[in-house]
Amino acid sequence: MAVRTILLLAFIATVAAVPSGTNTFDDEIMPEMELFQDGVESDQESFDEAKARVKELMSEGKSDKDCRKLADEEEAMIKKDVKNNKKILDALSDGSSCLTLGDKAVKTAKKDLDKAKKNKKDTAAALTKAQSAPVKFATVAWSSLTVGQCSTFFNQASYKTATNAVTSAKKAKEKADGALPVAQKAYDNAVASAKKQKKECLCKAKKAHDKAWDAYKKTEPANKKAWTRAAHLKCVLDGTPLDKCKVTPCPSNSKPKLVKEAANVSGCTAPPPPPAVHVHVTDIPGCKGMTVYGSQGSCDKKYNYQQTADFWCQRKGFKKGVSWTQVKGSQKLCYISGDYGKWTTMDAKKVKVSPYPSYGCSGHCKCFKDLKCAK
Question: What string of DSSP letters covers 70-100?
């Protein structure tokens, strides 16, 4: 029974969703002694060992009743083990709660997107209407008119009111036009986030199920052996031969179910990161003929090697610097020659850089070569 105990404890340790107070082993139901040692390979060996065990127990002064009690306790403990393990397996998430993760945010973002689309359409129609609206001018005396001069009309309140309406409609349309891409991006992000949340949750559920079930299955062989041995002992006590000895199926659990989305989820293991790429200084625009990278021209100590390496990698289209070799002394340097104090927050490709064929690198100038970058 020792093997089964260890496996059950390992099983409990691997399952996070175990209800408080649930044990896979109940110390209250323990036989006074184990009937046999684990490792019986066949029914005949088990039966022969049962005979020997009965003989041994009888020689120790145990009665028929005592022997049957030991067999009953063995069976009772197996049943309790299986029952407690079922509680643990049943407590696992089936993945159904994963299916709605992020949906609320998607619904809200979709509502905002639909509103933005409608607003864009409505403001465009309102502008067209404002631009097409008739302007009614007041009657004026002929004597107040001068050929080529229209201020008499453009200064009228009706024209100014119509102009203000068009101006307001244009501003409203521009605002709506600008809001739509923002709403679209928010919706796309919400959809992507919901998809990611669902995938991570489903993967977690499937992983927990697989680990728990594998751990539980490791307890079954020991349970089956113990169950068979208990039945054989009773047959020996009853004088029943092996070929007439009936062994009922050992109690066991069914594999807990997962929703199909969790059961069929794939791609849960993240792919390995792409290998780092060696980026040569001379290949970077503005650094032709140089062999060493440098930081800000003033050698400001507040910028570190990682920030500098990231900058040069991003200038070449990568995400970050992975490794480099620091150098000192006179070097053919390409350094950050503009946008001082701003380059860490700017698009690296827009920052000014310059070559310096003979620059004396000191420690705080962040001079290095052999730069490797990663996406």
Answer: HHHHHHHHHHHHHHHHHHHHHTS--SGGGGG
